[in-house]
Structures are given as C-alpha cells and as structure tokens.
Amino acid sequence: MTPALSTPARPRRPGARDTAPGPYAAADAAVTELALAARDGSPLAVERFVRATRLDVWRYVAHLSGDRQAADDLTQETYLRVLCSLPRFEGRSCARTWLLSIARRTVADRFRYAASRPRLSDTADWQLVAERTQPRGLPGFEEGLALRELLDALPVERREAFVLTHLVGLPYAEAATVTGCPVGTVRSRVARARTSLIHAIEAAELVAA
C-alpha cells in the first residue's frame, strides 16, 4: 500500500515568524495532484487524498465548532461533500485550501441547523463529556489539553486564523481564501491571537510559580 503523504504537523510557537515553511508548498502541490487524480477517477488517489488531509480537516472543524465530540461527524460530512464536488475541481487553487473552505461551510451549515432545533444540551456539557473520553496518561496529553483550553478562550475569528496558519499550516494567503477575508485581516487576527496566548501562558506560569 502506498504510504500517505506526510505534512509538517508540529504547531509553531505563538511567537514564531509569520513566513510559511517551505515543506508546506511541496506538500500542498502533492495534495493538489492527488485531488486532480481523484477527480479523474483513481480510487487509490481518493484514498491517499483523504489520508493526507484528514488530520488537518479534523483539527480545523474541531477548533472551529468548539465541539470535539462532533468533529468526526463533521469531518466525514466534509469528505462526502468533497467527493461530490471533485468532478468540478480544476486545480486553480491549492486542493487543501479548497478542502478547508468546504469544511468551513460544513461547520456553518451545522450551526445553522442546530440553531433551528430545540437546544438539548449546553456546549459546556458536550465538552465535559469529550474531555472524559480523552486518553489521559499519554505523553503530551496535559500540554495538548492546556493548548486546547487556551485556544478555546480566544474569539472564534482569531482562533480560526491561528488554527489555519499555526496548526494546519496554511500560508496567510490561503487562510484568507478559506475565511473569505483579506490577508491583512488574517495577519491581524493571528497577531492578536498570539499576543493573547502569550499573555495567558505567562499568567499561568506566574500562578504555577
């Protein structure tokens, strides 16, 4: 079986430089090639495309929705929409940017649907259930949980910009395409998110000292 594409997964530190690392460009080009091959009917390309991008989609919808218990369903729904839209994909933009734009609409549609239904549970309740099902005791768990809590405290626009550029690894121009706002706005939101995260980390360190 052909191995899945590898993309840089380590998040950048809040104070890192704004420039996108080179490996992302090569990975994005390879993902776009896979998407075009999948569009042309290659089952293997479809499988590799999903495997190469699934983690990015999951991270994005989890942070954007604020509901990690629903992230698996949102990811699956995203790929169902993607497979339906593949015949119309022409490769004019990076496939990963196109994919995350579909993921964003999927989350937005879920919000609209939820708003039209009777509310059965508060978000906090869902998050509590999700936290209880996390595999505690694994290396990096507490650090990951702390980062998640810090990100969840950010305004949604800043959190989305930070996740796209620092966790998913999109260049600012592609993040702007996904969010539908100017590049300058994305840069401003990321800068403010980094500042908030740095202050929150410093405050936590003072409490722990």
From TrEMBL:
Annotated region (Disordered), positions in chain: 1-23
CDD domains: Sigma70_r4
Species the sequence originates in: Streptantibioticus parmotrematis
Domain RNA polymerase sigma factor 70 region 4 type: 146-197
Ranges where the RNA polymerase sigma-70 region domain occurs: 50-115
Family of the protein in this entry: Belongs to the sigma-70 factor family. ECF subfamily.
The entry's keywords: DNA-binding, Sigma factor, Transcription, Transcription regulation
A Pfam family of this chain: Sigma70_r4_2
Top-level taxon of the source organism: Bacteria
Name of this chain's protein: RNA polymerase sigma factor
